[in-house]
Amino acid sequence: MPQSKRLKYLLLLVLLISAFLRCGVAVYVQRQLDQQPGRTYVIEGDADGYWKLAQCLIRGKDYSIYHPPRRVLRMPGFPLFLAGAMSVIGEDHFRVRLVLALSGVFACFVVYLLGKELVNETIGIIAAALVAVSPVMAGFSVLFLSETLFAVAMLISLWVLVKLLKTRFGTEDQFRGSLLAFLTGISLAAAFYVRPSWLLILPVIVVILVISAKGYRTAAMQRALVMTLGFALMLVPWVYRNYRVTGHFVPTTLWAGPSLYDGLNPKATGDSDMTFFDQENVLNEMSEYEMNQHYTRRAVAYAEQHPGHVMQLMGAKLLRYWKPWPNAPQFQSFWMMLAVSVIFVPVMLFALYGAWVSRNQYLLLLITLGPLIYFSMIHLIFVSSLRYRLPAEYSLYILSAVGIYHLFLNLKQRKEITPGQ
């Protein structure tokens, strides 16, 4: 059997395993919840909010929840996805979980595409296989949380970005470069619609694009402008809608202030504890926009006045971000922590070895390590958890696949892995 055909069959097998595991987890999670009267979600707060916002969308109601109404609480990407699923299969938790499980399978496929684009098809399949059998990725894919959908959107944006960065500057590639730059901006914005913290990646990419284009700075700046245009055009509907309901320019949400204060306050530990929000109930006296500004000012003021505590919190948040097992109390059983750690620790070791053997392949390192470092830095300020690391692990598994490839293939089969092979 030809090598290419064998690899296609392997990819199909990986995707089938991924689908089997995720659908099995969906069945297990739903049965466990059904046996606990009054409990609907594994992680209540965020999941219930997303579900209710999706219901607002399919019923034609105002995009808001709670009282007083919170109109700019969440980005609309994940609620739109849930609403799309509900409009086809109904407002049934189990059926929607199965749709979410399929999004996890698609995440495996996009990891394969990204690995193939960065290195080769073999690496893509190994990386997809690692994602397929990851207990955390399988588990999160069936929860009403945005991590898996964001991972899919982020991976697609990285895949398009790699194609852009590999496109040469020159007259013959000018149209292709501009088109890919525009699509990169659109795909980055699509991921931003799921998770607003992805917003800061645009200026980072623009800087990298311009700096790396030695001798072609003008052409690189043109591509950067086209990319920014694509991103901005995608944001117009959300920004316009927010201006209509708040009277202010709001490109993200009005939950950033409370989230920032959650991570920077006298009682902060690095874990999320939003009890202060309900206790203070400032929305009875302020608008949603004023509330966001209020908590932002308080967080910044506390950080300025207590730099020592801020440094301690950064250490605690870093530990929570990199801890091999979940931080949440409901996931502290011995077997669950073991199941998560027994995958994450070897994967990280393989990734370190993969980074070493790929130390001169800057594009590979940028795409596989960049998101992990990016979110690690952001969550030195905001609260931190495995949840915020999880989407970035998807691209990291490509580097783990490189490590596995170099460690376990016979010497005769080993060859230098270069991007695009």
Write the layout of secondary structure elements.
Layout: H1 3-34, H2 44-58, H3 77-89, H4 93-118, H5 121-133, H6 135-140, H7 147-165, H8 174-192, H9 201-212, H10 217-246, H11 256-263, H12 275-280, H13 288-305, H14 307-322, H15 334-357, H16 362-378, H17 386-408
Helix pairs in contact: 1-4, 1-5, 2-3, 4-5, 4-7, 4-17, 5-17, 7-8, 7-17, 8-10, 9-10, 11-13, 15-17, 16-17
Summarize this structure as a short list of keywords or feature phrases:
single chain, 421 residues, mainly alpha, disordered C terminus
User: Would you count the extended β strands for me?
Assistant: 0
Give, in order, the helices and strands.
HHHHHHHHHHHHHHHHH
Judged by helices, strands and strand pairing, the structural class is mainly alpha
End-to-end CA span: 20 Å
The number of helical elements comes to: 17
**Helical percent range?**
over 70%
User: What value does the Rg take, in angstroms?
Assistant: 22 Å
* Whole-number mean pLDDT: 91
Largest sheet: none
Give the overall silhouette: globular
Strand content: under 5%
Can you characterise this structure?
By secondary structure, the protein is mainly alpha-helical. It has one domain (3-254, 324-408). It is 71% helix and 0% strand. Helix 9 packs antiparallel against helix 10 (217-246). The longest helix is centred in the first third of the chain and has 32 residues, at 3-34. The two termini are 20 Å apart. The model is unreliable at 416-421 (pLDDT under 50).
